[in-house]
Amino acid sequence: MPTVPSYDKLQVREAPLPGVSFxxxxxxxxxxxxxxxxxxxxxxxxxxxxxxKIAEQERKKADQLAVLSADTKLSAxxxxxxxxxxxxxxxxxxxxxxxxYDSASEAWKQGVDAIEKELHTExxxxxxxxxxxxxWSSIDKSIQAHIHGETQKYDxxxxxSYIANERDAASQSYMDKGRIGLSxxxxxxxxxxxxxxxxxxxxxxxxxxSESVSKTHVGVIDRMLAAGEDQHAKAYYDEVNSxxxxxxxxxxxxxxxLDEGMSRGDAQRNADKIWNEAGGDYGVAxxxxxxxxxxxTRQLTEDLVRKRNSDQKAVEAGVRDDIYIEAANLAEQNxxxxxRLLVDPSKWGMLTPEQRSxxxxxxxxxxxxxxxxxxxxxxxxxxxxxxxxxxxxSKYWVHFDSAHKSRAEEMWQEGRSGRGSSDKHTATLxxxxxxxxxxxxxxxxxxxxxTNIKGDNExxxxxxxxxxxxxxxxxxxxxxKKASGEDVQGILDGLVRERVKVKRLFGxxxxxxxxxxxxxxxxxxxxxxxxxxxxxSAIEAAFKAKRKNxxxxxxxxxxxxxxxxxxxxxxxxxxx
Length: 576
Prior knowledge:
Blueprint: H1 35-83, H2 100-116, H3 122-172, H4 177-198, H5 202-226, H6 230-242, H7 248-277, H8 282-289, H9 295-333, H10 339-342, H11 345-350, H12 353-360, H13 370-377, H14 381-385, H15 389-395, H16 402-417, H17 426-441, H18 455-479, H19 485-496, E1 499-502, E2 509-512, E3 524-525, H20 533-545, H21 552-563, H22 567-574
Antiparallel strand pairs: 1-2, 1-3
C-alpha cells in the first residue's frame, strides 16, 4: 500500500538565483521621473498658468465692460437730472429752484441703485461705486451753484418788484404826503433786509436807498404833471430838491419835465381865459392867443385854442348828426310830408344846408351821380366807416340811384362794423378793376385810369358796374356760393357782349344794352356779322313762321330787341 512521506523540518531553503546579477545604475526615467518628467511637469504648469492668465484677463475685460456700461448709464442719468427739458434742474427758475436739490438727490439715488443691480461681481460694484461718488460730487456742485444763482435772481427780482409797486403806490397817491412817506419807509426796510440776506456792504445799502427815495419823488412829480397839476408839482419839487432828496441825474431829468409841464399849464390857463373872454368866437380867441408875449407858451396857447374850437365843432357836429337821424326817421315814418315841417325850427336851423338838402331829397330816386359814386368806392372801408350817418347820406348816398344807394349802404355798414380790410374795399376794388379792364378791352372806355372816366364814359361805367354787381348777387343766390374770380369775369364778359348800335344822324354809336334809353330802342340794331349763327337762324325761322321776309335790316333790329330783352319791340319787328 502506498505511503505518504512526512516532513519533520522545513525542507526548502532560500538561496540566490544562480547566474542573476543587479545593475544599480538604472535611469530615473525608467521609473517615470527625471528630466523628461520635469520637462513635462514644467510644460503642464505653463499651460495651466496661461489658462489662468487668460481667464483672469477675460474676467477683467468683463468687469471693465460692465462698469463702462454702468457708467454710461450714470452719464445719461446725470444729464437727465440736470438738463431734461421738463424736469431738469436747470429748468427750475426762481423760487421753483428751491426744491431742486432734494428732487435731484432722490432721482440720483433711485437711478444709481437700479443700475447697480445689473452688476454681478464685487469688483464691478466697487469700481461702479467709485464712479458714482465722483459723478455725484460734480453734480452736487453744479446743482448747488444753480440753486444759489436762481435764489439770488429771485431775491433780486422780488425785492425790485416790491420797490416798484411801492413807488407806483406813492405816485398814485401824489397828493397824499403820508402815503408817500410810508412808501419810502417800506422801500428802505425791503432794501435793508435784502442787504442782510446777501451780506451786502453798508455803502451798497446807502446808495440803493438814496436812489429809491429819489425815484419815488420823481414818480410823484411826473404823475402831478400828467394830471395837469403843474403848480403843485413845482412846489413839491422845490421842497424835495432843497432837502437834497433828488440824485443828480434824476434832478436834471425832472427839472426838464417840470419846465415843459409849467409851459403847458401856463398855456392852458391862457387859452381858457382867452376863450372865455372871446365868448367862444374862434377868430377873436386866436388873435388874442397870438398876443401872448412869452414865445415858449404862445404857440402852445394857439394850439390849445384851435383844439378848443375843434372840440366844440365835434360836439356841434354830434348834435347835428343826432338831429339829422331824428329828422330822417320822421321822414321815413311820414312819407309824402315835407320833412322840413316835421322838424322843430330850432333844430332845423342847426342843420347844414347840405344836410337839409339831403333830407328833402331822401324820397327821390335821382339819376346816379357817377363821379360821386367813383369817389365813394375809392375810399377805404375805414374812411367809409368813419363817416357819420348824416355825412354819409348828405355827401354820397343822396346822390345815388336806388341800386347804388343799396350798395353804398351795405359798404357803409361794413365799414362801421369793421368787417372791411385795411386797404381799399377789397371786394369792390377787385371788382372795380375787373369792370374797368373789361370795358377797356371791349373799347367801351378810352382809358382804365380812374380820373379819366368822365362824361358818357362815366355813365357807361356806372351802369355796367351796377348791372354786373346785380348779376353777381343773383349768381351767388342761385348757386349758394361766393362767386370766384372766374365766375365774376364770366358774368362781366357776358354783359359786355350785350351791345347794340344806335342809329344817329352823325354816325351810329355803339352802346351797352343797359345804357340804351327808351327812345333809342327803336333805332337799335346789331350788325349781321356780330350775330351768333344759331341766334341768326332762330330769328330767321321766327320770321318764316310768321310768313314774313327776313331782310338783313329786320334781322339786325330783331336781334337788338332780343339783346335789350324787349319782347314787345321784338314782336313788333317780327310782324313787319
